[in-house]
Design brief:
The chain has 415 residues and is of the alpha/beta class. Helices cover 35% and strands 27% of the residues. α1 links the parallel β1 and β2. The chain is globular and about 60 Å long. Bound molecules: NADPH dihydro-nicotinamide-adenine-dinucleotide phosphate (NDP).
């Protein structure tokens, strides 16, 4: 039904997505919110009603089961499904959207539960089926991936004939006052940051040690407004689609800030095995240590109260400027830095959320808006950089995530 959205997942990110849909009730006329259990959706429903006077409907669904999701889609009749549950559910929800011919949007690529490994191949494999069904899947429409992909597409469109070097920099320069906590789902977060690191260099992936290793690659970067923060090279999923869609890129790296205290906790967890993802026997029962660990750690949504400081996420891009008539050999390169600054306390004031949930939860709402208004159209499976970045970024700016572009200097090749 036109103007109907179904959001699956009611964690920190789902909270923001539901609130932002409610704030755009001229587009999202009917909002459905579903999760594994009813408690979280109902708490969000109450808060949305209190803050914006909008009624949303809540549901229980096991999104590991495509058939159950398809039944919920048939019942709620959405134009778009926004998946902000966990990466494990991506394929089941994509299958359900395919069976019911409804557009699909997510913020993180598929990852099997029993293997700490994510890549787009599983979801790109739906290309023909989505095309034949005449529906769109927009993959990775959070902040990173998501807005970072749109940032690069925007710079490519406005300033560059050819992009050569990309550095994506993600700083959470905020403080939640806990000795250890993750800003989004702990299980997904710990799996992501403890894996082997790779970056793109001259047509191939180059491996380097994980962030907890004494030989990890890191440097101090002076972030706008947030100041200098130690930034670690990390593998991040948007690089896989970006090097495919911008084949001129010679080098692409992703950097994220981590404090020494966070790294020490990770090292201890790794060494005692509590971040393991394989089952172990405990008291005669099989348990998965990382899932037990998740139950002990703070719920990321609960960090919002009292979170202070900023998150600064952006991309430094170097390349051949638009309209350069010079021979390749003598082409003078230019560098641009595009970024957003988000204030944790401001997010809390607006929606009762912390900045990381906010930066991840608003973009899929705007992506849904682009699809529902027909601004992004097509049939098949898309990454965000394949779609027009300008209306997306300008609408995002009006919805709390503005950006700035400045002239910059390239980061050194060797760090
Ligand atoms: P949370 O763990 O806080 O929330 C996940 C939600 O999904 C919960 O409501 C959970 O229910 C629900 N859920 C889990 N399993 C199922 C299931 N089988 N069926 C139905 N619902 C289920 O995670 P976050 O909100 O922190 O993160 C949500 C997503 O956002 C993740 O995929 C994460 O990777 C992504 N993300 C993307 C970012 C980006 O910039 N691109 C940044 C940050 C996050 P319950 O709690 O009852 O289990």
């Amino acid at each position: 039904m036109k103007g109907t959205v179904l959001i699956i997942g009611a964690g920190g990110v789902g909270h923001v997505t539901a609130h932002k849909c409610a704030r755009n009730k001229n587009v999202f006329k009917k909002i459905h919110l579903a999760s594994r259990t009813i408690g979280k959706p109902n708490a969000i429903k109450k808060d949305v009603k209190k803050r914006w006077g909008v009624n949303i409907s809540t549901h229980v669904v096991d999104a590991d089961k495509a058939r159950d999701v398809a039944a919920l889609i048939r019942k709620t009749q959405p134009e778009v499904v926004i998946n902000v549950a966990l990466p494990y559910q991506d394929l089941a929800i994509m299958d359900a959207c395919l069976a019911t011919k409804v557009h699909y949007i997510d913020t993180a690529n598929y990852e099997p539960k029993d293997e700490a490994h994510f890549e787009y191949s599983w979801q790109w494999a739906y290309q023909k089926r989505y095309k034949d069904a005449g529906i769109m899947a927009v993959l990775g429409a959070g902040f990173d991936p998501g807005v970072t992909n749109a940032y690069i597409a925007y710079l490519a469109k406005k300033y560059f004939d050819k992009i050569k070097y990309v550095d994506i920099l993600d700083a959470n320069a905020g403080s939640h006052g806990k000795s250890f906590a993750t800003n989004f789902n702990p299980e997904i977060n710990i799996r992501e940051v403890t894996q082997e690191v790779k970056h793109w260099n001259k047509g191939k992936w180059v491996k380097t040690p994980p962030i907890m290793d004494p030989k990890s690659v890191h440097f101090k970067f002076n972030y706008p407004i947030a100041g200098p923060w130690e930034s670690y090279m990390l593998y991040h999923e948007e690089m896989e689609s970006l090097v495919k869609h911008f084949p001129s890129v010679e080098r692409m790296r992703f950097w994220m800030t981590f404090g020494e205290n966070y790294l020490t906790h990770l090292r201890v967890m790794e060494s005692i095995g509590i971040s393991r993802i394989d089952p172990v026997m405990h008291d005669g029962k099989k348990i998965i240590p990382i899932q037990f660990l998740k139950s002990l750690l703070p719920d990321p949504a609960s960090l919002a109260t009292g979170y202070s400081g900023k998150a600064v996420i952006g991309c430094i891009v170097t390349g051949v400027p638009k309209g350069s008539k010079l021979e390749a050999r003598s082409q003078k390169l230019i560098t641009k830095y595009i970024y957003n600054v988000t204030d944790h306390a401001k997010c809390f004031k607006e929606l009762g959320s912390q900045g990381i949930s906010y930066t991840a939860g608003v973009p899929p709402v705007i992506a849904a808006m682009m699809v529902m208004k027909g601004i992004w159209k097509g049939a098949g499976v898309f990454n965000v950089e394949q779609l027009d970045p300008e209306p997306f970024l300008s609408t995002l700016a009006k919805n709390g995530l503005p950006f700035k572009v400045i002239n910059y200097k390239p980061l050194p090749a060797k760090i």
